Amino acid sequence: MQQIFLVTLPFFALILCGYLATRGRLLPLGAIPGLNAFVLYFALPSMLFQFAANMDVGELFDPHTIFVYMLCALLMVLLTIVTTRRGNTNWNNAAFGALVAAFPNSGFMGMPILVSLVGASGVGPAVVSISIDMIITSSLCIALSRLGQHGDGGAMDAAKKAMKGVLLNPLPWAVVLGAVCSATAFSFYEPVDQVIKMFANSCSPIALFTIGAMLARPPVTAATDSAPAGRFPLGDIHLIVVYKLIVHPLLVLGVGYVYTQMGFDLSPQALTVLVLVAALPSASSITVLAEKFEADSRRIAQIVLFSTAIAFVTFSTAVKWLI
Question: Measuring CA to CA, which of 15, 184, 186, 319 is 20 to 30 A from 302?
Fold first, then answer.
């Protein structure tokens, strides 16, 4: 276990550095959007492109990996909404609670850690999980968040806006472009390739530092009847953290095991990577998304913060048992 901590500690230490730098005002709050934009539009797309370009296309579009991860994501959304939509928790807050329970931080945090743990050969399932969460899980939860809303076009309009956001997101396109280059054996002119490599190499430290900075940023929430100023459901926060760190990876492990026992060809390595992805803490970007849709972003921020802190132990334990 000590050896596992030695591997995972530097990653969580970089997150802590970002958190402390922001809390101590060494990093101004106004710099966080710039760091986030650099990772989202330059560093992480370059890393994903490199991985996709050097992988077999079949790994990126493996139907067994897609089915198992997508089914588990949908089950997590269903479980969270059924168990948290009660009392003053409306569809908006229930849907974003479901999103934060089902959407791991596989981009900013997962890719750097998984590359260190399992190498480039295990990146394929991680790329699949990122694509599903961005395209399916987030779009579904945003559409559900609009149920019961009036004057904003409802769930269908929200789904269209979510799909527009997916189309404008550079991460899926980086994967697609990498897959095209892999299938056609295309390579960029060497200086261009060097630029891509430099962006990709900068991804891990800056992405992890940015997670910490985003965790330290105070969320802004408009007061509503379902999320009054100064109040948020602590019980739901603890429950969703358990869902994210314990239930989600166990669900993926169980579904994957049953799926393989039924005779389907899901490789043990792919299942291991999917379980580790599910064991990651909640994606920090969901807090910003919750603010945009006027959900209780303080509640989401607390879930992301607690899940990230506790994941140092729970994720390391998952690594110990799986690798």
Answer: 319
